[in-house]
């Protein structure tokens, strides 16, 4: 979609070109560098690849064998909604108490590390689900070493279970199955194993290579054994990192705290991060003023596989951004500035999502076959009236599709849906709630608010004829 907009050719033609290369794609898919070049060439364009990756700009120093030490595995929990991902993460977080620590983990910083009885550690990413996992991967960050796939034993292997499996497989991340809710009378773990076998995924007790364990995330049955299996898998992976060099890693979460400024949780993947280090993370930079672990303790240093919250960056980087430590403050600032400029240029060149204002132009270019709309309103009557009237505006060139309608404020879920299906959002006497506005700005989703039905209909008509004034 982006590359089609950049070249000003219909998306269908780009998809067609990809298909002729034997690559099946959707409009939201990312193309690799080689495919991009070939596709662009087809339409008479040349692709220039610009990089602000640190790796490309700095000499890479190979780690010496004697500097490498074992590091804790980093684990993501995935699976179908309601199958118990959050419960499992909560149980592990609460039950695990480090020797000498009086309580469980109280802070949510996006990742946490636990120490088992035998002193071995496991780091968990605390955002369950393959969406976060895949969003990070889309930014080029692969932090997960092992995926726990949770499947409820009183249910079947569900669509999102399959998705989670595909995402883990696509990332080449080994999986361990946690067959959950075995405390329930209706639980039938063997059925899940059978269904896995039907997908060519044989678990151990079925003579296969995949570790699996029956658990109850609610009561805690089997969770300890599951964690042992995680450690076993980690041992096979022989995970190592060099703690002696300046730290590198990935941003997990970032937010603005009223009292403390920008708080960024990062996962150190190699090296050791220290208070006072000068850090570049995505387009943001700054000197680390303080660091805190998931228990709220101030710490001075963080080694490989450690999740840590840092204070001192000049903004909030995005989850999945890499971070590096710089000796030279000036160099870090320069790269940050270059990245900011690149991002600005890129978003000026590409419009990720449909807006009403550019609808007419794109219909005229033949780029458009359907317009997806989400309607949110204060009362059911007006929502239905709008949906009806909008649908009637469909023409031969363009079909108006109401993909979702409902009573209530415009929520983040609405914006996510709009983003995933390239829709615009029409609000009738309702406003975006919570972070929906900020998310919409970031995702470049067009939200239009109306309080008169005819205004909304007129705007859509005008937009379809390419006559809508750009900003209202
Ligand atoms: P998620 O959507 O995958 O994060 O699922 P949740 O962890 O939110 O769990 C969904 C529901 O299942 C909640 O009501 C949990 O209390 C319940 N649940 C999760 N694990 C278990 C379990 O092991 N046994 C029982 N009986 N209920 C569970």
UniProtKB/TrEMBL annotation:
<feature type="domain" description="Tr-type G">
    <location>
        <begin position="70"/>
        <end position="240"/>
    </location>
</feature>
<feature type="binding site">
    <location>
        <begin position="180"/>
        <end position="183"/>
    </location>
    <ligand>
        <name>GTP</name>
    </ligand>
</feature>
<comment type="similarity">
    <text>Belongs to the TRAFAC class translation factor GTPase superfamily. Classic translation factor GTPase family. IF-2 subfamily.</text>
</comment>
<feature type="binding site">
    <location>
        <begin position="79"/>
        <end position="86"/>
    </location>
    <ligand>
        <name>GTP</name>
    </ligand>
</feature>
<protein>
    <recommendedName>
        <fullName>Translation initiation factor IF-2</fullName>
    </recommendedName>
</protein>
<feature type="binding site">
    <location>
        <begin position="126"/>
        <end position="130"/>
    </location>
    <ligand>
        <name>GTP</name>
    </ligand>
</feature>
<comment type="function">
    <text>One of the essential components for the initiation of protein synthesis. Protects formylmethionyl-tRNA from spontaneous hydrolysis and promotes its binding to the 30S ribosomal subunits. Also involved in the hydrolysis of GTP during the formation of the 70S ribosomal complex.</text>
</comment>
């Amino acid at each position: 979609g982006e590359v089609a907009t950049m070249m000003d050719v219909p998306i269908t033609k780009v998809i067609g070109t990809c298909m002729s290369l034997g690559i099946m794609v959707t409009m939201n898919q990312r193309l690799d560098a080689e495919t991009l070049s070939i596709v662009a060439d087809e339409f008479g364009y040349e692709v220039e690849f610009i990089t602000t990756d640190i790796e490309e700009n700095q000499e890479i120093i190979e780690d010496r064998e004697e500097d490498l030490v074992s590091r804790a595995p980093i684990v993501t929990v995935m699976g179908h909604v309601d199958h118990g991902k959050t419960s499992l993460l909560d149980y592990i977080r609460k039950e695990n108490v480090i020797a000498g620590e009086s309580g469980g983990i109280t802070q949510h910083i996006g990742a946490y590390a636990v120490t088992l009885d035998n002193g071995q550690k496991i780091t968990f990413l605390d955002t369950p689900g393959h969406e976060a996992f895949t969003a990070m991967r889309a930014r080029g960050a692969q932090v997960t070493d092992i995926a726990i796939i949770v499947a409820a034993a009183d249910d079947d292997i569900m669509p999102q279970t399959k998705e989670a499996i595909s995402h883990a497989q696509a990332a080449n991340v080994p999986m361990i199955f946690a067959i959950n809710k075995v405390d329930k009378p209706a639980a039938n773990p063997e059925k899940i194993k059978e269904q896995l076998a039907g997908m060519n995924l044989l678990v151990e007790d079925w003579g296969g290579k995949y570790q699996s364990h029956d658990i109850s995330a609610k009561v805690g049955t089997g969770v300890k054994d599951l964690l042992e299996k995680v450690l076993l898998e980690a041992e096979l992976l022989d995970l190592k990192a060099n703690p002696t060099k300046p730290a590198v890693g990935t941003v997990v979460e970032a937010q603005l705290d009223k009292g403390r400024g920008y708080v960024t949780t990062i996962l150190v993947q190699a090296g050791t991060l220290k208070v006072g280090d000068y850090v570049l993370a995505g387009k943001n930079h700054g000197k680390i003023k303080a660091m805190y672990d998931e228990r709220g303790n101030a710490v001075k240093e963080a080694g490989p596989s450690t999740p840590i919250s840092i204070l001192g960056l000049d903004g909030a980087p995005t989850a999945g951004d890499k971070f590096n430590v710089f000796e030279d403050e000036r160099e870090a600032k320069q790269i940050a500035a270059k990245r900011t400029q690149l991002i600005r240029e890129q978003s000026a060149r590409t419009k990720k999502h449909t807006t009403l204002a550019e609808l007419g132009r794109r219909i005229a270019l033949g780029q458009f076959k359907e317009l997806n709309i989400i309607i949110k309103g204060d009362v059911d009557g007006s929502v239905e009236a709008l949906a009806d009237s909008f649908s009637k505006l469909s023409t031969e060139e363009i079909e108006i599709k109401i993909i979702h309608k409902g009573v209530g404020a415009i929520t983040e879920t609405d914006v996510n849906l709009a983003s995933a299906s390239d829709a615009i959002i029409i609000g009738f006497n309702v406003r975006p709630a919570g972070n929906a506005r900020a998310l919409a700005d970031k995702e470049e989703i067009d939200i239009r608010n109306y309080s008169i039905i005819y205004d909304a209909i007129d705007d859509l008509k005008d937009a379809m004829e390419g006559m809508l004034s750009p900003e209202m």
